[in-house]
Amino acid sequence: MLDFELLRTFVAVADCGGFHRAAERLNLTQSTVSQQIKRLELETKRPLFRRTTRSVALTDDGEMLLGDARRLLQFEEAARHRLAAPRLSGTARLGVVEEVASGALPSALGRFAKLHPGVKLEVQIGVSAELIEQLNAGRLDVVFAKRPLGTSKGRLVWREPLVWAAADTFDLIPGAALPLALYRERSVSREAALAALNDNELTWEITYTSPSLTGVRAAALAGLAITPLPVSALIAGLRILGVEDGLPRLPDLEFAIYEKARPDKAAAALAAVLLTLVQGPSRPAI
Asked: What is the model's pTM?
């Protein structure tokens, strides 16, 4: 019989790419996470991770277990909520960035609706800074957004690379200002991109702005400009430009869940479902 607590830790290490990040996500010490993985490897009689001084990667056996572990945890979570959770009612107001809304959000909300049919959902899509402001002002209950760079607030869900994206047919012109397609204002991706360009003393020009991911991605697809995107937001017709193309490396993006100071039961239940069902870059969902 596999221990669900050990499976939950195993999935967190796989999603976060390391023991330290998994410990942050689970609110455990790194030594506790390491001990739990050792216990699971003893129970399964298989090595689940390849460890080096710089990285942690799944073994072949670990890859096979990961999908089963996710399904088992989902079944366990669903059964626990059905049997133990009280019938909830009221309204849960969710703010979410488009990168998440276009991925696993529909399935997560569908799951929540099945668990708590008496709760009405209100969903707003926007830019991280604006959504977090609305949460702080009491107009939203839960926010799923990109963490502002240099902060550690919120409950970390995953990290993923931020990359320069351009059309397959786009050519950089030597000596010319870099044409950029960016969110209009106060975007984590926008701030990271401009800081990286300025730190490397590169010449750039904002030629296209949009309030949405769809808009900046469309500009890149049309060959009008390059744009910073999380790697999960890349689609056919776009390629990654990197340091070999003369562009600076960009920082990883962190996606986190924020809750109001005193969440009611409906909001807390929504945050719990989002944390369980939405996974990081190694996940198939996004």
From this structure: 0.66
